[in-house]
Amino acid sequence: MPFFLAQLPASVIAAEYKSPSSPNQNFSSRPTEKFYTNIASLVQEQINLIARIEKAIAQPDANQLRAVRGQLIVQQVAIESSFKDYNRNQLAACNASSNSSVGVLPASPLSEPQAQIYCSLYASNRELSKLASVLDRLLSRRGESALVRDLPLVSGERQSHPVLSIAAVEHPNLGKSATPFATQEPNLPLVNYPIIGRTAKKLLADYVPPNQPAIVPPTEALAIIQRAKELLAQAISKFPTGSKFKNPSETTIALDRFAYNIDPQEEQTYLKFLEVPNTGIFRVLPYSAYHRPLNTQQNRLQKSVSERYPFPRLGVARGGFTPSLPLQIVGESFQVVPSGVDYSFMMDLGNVAIEKLDANLGNVSEKTREFFFNYQAPKQLEALQEERRRFLTGKDQTQSLILAGAKAELNHTYLVRSLQFQLPEIITTQKPISRSDRAQIDQLLQMQSSDMILAFRPVRRRSDGSYTVLWRVLNQFPNPQIEDLEAYIKY
């Protein structure tokens, strides 16, 4: 008999051996060294889930809502299942606790801070589960603007094909955006300037761009998320000193700045230049960065790139008007992309230090200097718009060709004459003026404008085609006027 037992594997003997100790004794002897590692993983997942929900309820994509709806269930099951690893009674104690903070249960290996972490995390997830009905309601609304189709099984489904005998297997993928109903948008020219005073042909007859959805996250959803964050913060506060968690929302903000803003050290690099009055530094982005990609949807109430990272202001605000530098990369060229009847023209000066330029343009050729100083803008609105088209296209220019843009070259300095106008609202909207407002016609026709010479110099080029640019205002001219605005009033 002893010889036979000696030949058996130790695992078999251990499997048949029944410990006489009680279940509580076994539980209390269980090590808890991995407690903080395991619970930290659940807390991090809870942080990630909240960030994904916040993004989903503010976006028009239905697949994001479906994804977080399923992840909400998975997270709830994961948290509740984790209680069995320590003490099932802990779950009941957390449910009975009103402030998500309970003491240590008998025969529990958890300390009081550990128990409080569990209860705060559980309460946060329980609060977040209240979003289930809200997400279902929002998903039904998202289906009004995009195709919400049935997902294939997790294992995939074969799609029938009229030619191929062996059809491909389709797997579920909520990472892709739902297909919007309004698709097949035409690829129209990048820059399209309005014409005031007469009817202009449309680039595409009878085409109306799709109206982008305006999405406001429900107040009840924001309140639930805020409460879940507060409970989660209570759990995080009980972790040992030095414990760190990553917040995806903060990461998104950092990545957004990395994609569209200058690097912080760049300001320090050019600090001496920036100490000079009327100077600045900013990042010139490709034209596409300011516009929605074709056949996609976005929440039109969310801040655009130009709103998050506005163009440099070139002067003091007057009556709601502030001249700016809307410099962008169009194709392979720098171009000041204006609005309304604004226009500008520029000249590449070559590798001339921007610090050496002055108000008199002493380092510029005499021909260029005379043109930039002597140019006079038309005082009639129709002529002003024709002048803008002339610089944009280069047609009908009697002097040497000077355009609204110039090829982008690193470490070149560009000279710009910029004219900007803030036309009265009654002119831009072309709405008929009422009889009661006719007595205030002079006040309604008041206009703000600016005319200046400035220079900019690209000092860094990134792989995405954007440039870090230094700029400097060199000269300010009297504000240009338009004398025939009254002729464009509709009575």
Provide the descriptors you would attach to this structure in a database record.
single chain, 491 residues, alpha+beta, 2 domains, five-stranded antiparallel β-sheet, three-stranded antiparallel β-sheet, 17 helices, 36% helix, elongated, disordered N terminus
Structure overview:
The chain is elongated. The protein folds into two domains: 24-246, no CATH class; 260-488, no CATH class. Residues 1-31 and 99-104 have low confidence and may be disordered. Helix 4 (35-56) runs parallel beside helix 7, helix 5 runs antiparallel to helix 7 (112-128) and helix 5 packs antiparallel against helix 8 (132-142). It has helices spanning 2-7, 10-16, 23-28, 35-56, 62-82, 88-96, 112-128, 132-142, 219-237, 248-260, 264-269, 271-274, 305-308, 366-374, 381-393, 425-428, 441-444, and strands spanning 157-158, 169-170, 279-284, 327-330, 333-336, 343-348, 405-407, 414-422, 448-461, 467-477. The strands form three sheets. A five-stranded antiparallel sheet has the order 3-10-9-8-6. Strands 4-5-7 form a three-stranded antiparallel sheet, with no helix packed on it. A two-stranded antiparallel sheet has the order 1-2. A hairpin with a 5-residue loop joins strand 9 and strand 10. The protein is 36% helix and 12% strand. It has 491 residues and is an alpha+beta fold. The longest helix has 22 residues, at 35-56. The protein is built from 17 helices and ten strands.
